[in-house]
Design brief:
The chain is built from 9 helices and no strands. It is mostly helical. Helix 2 (about 15-35) packs across helix 5 (about 55-65).
Length: about 130
């Protein structure tokens, strides 16, 4: 299936650039200041209530601003936190499974899939280097 560029995908959308900007920056501010939003499962409905928008506009905003789905965006925050823990030496005293649970991943499968997608390699190769 061919991926449609965001500017074409949303050309018939009724969201204004001002509203798109508002939703993005509110989301960004919340994600940066409230790690609980990405450390625990947060539903699309919760995000929409928090940002005072609907699911269509929310999804469009995330996709246009980042090129990601909301799940991939959340996994990016979790991955950054995981990498920070690795750089701080926590892999020496904790298991990978323990770390991935600490940063909000529910299971190994979603973590390893996200790691390969976002980092382009294997966790073990990254930790060794």
């Amino acid at each position: 299936m061919k991926k449609i560029p965001a500017h074409q995908k949303y050309q018939d959308s009724h969201i204004t650039p001002k509203e798109l900007h508002r939703i993005w920056w509110q989301l960004h501010d919340h994600l940066e200041s409230t790690p609980q939003l990405w450390l625990r499962p947060t539903s699309l409905k919760e995000f929409c209530l928090l940002l005072n928008t609907n699911q269509k506009y929310f999804s469009q905003t995330v996709n246009q601003a980042t090129g990601f789905s909301i799940n991939t965006l959340i996994h990016t925050y979790r991955m950054e936190f995981f990498l920070k823990k690795i750089q701080q030496g926590e892999a020496q005293i904790k298991t990978i499974e323990g770390l991935l649970l600490e940063v909000g991943f529910k299971n190994r499968s979603s973590f390893y899939t996200s790691f390969r997608k976002l980092m382009g390699g294997k966790v073990t190769d990254f930790i060794r280097d």
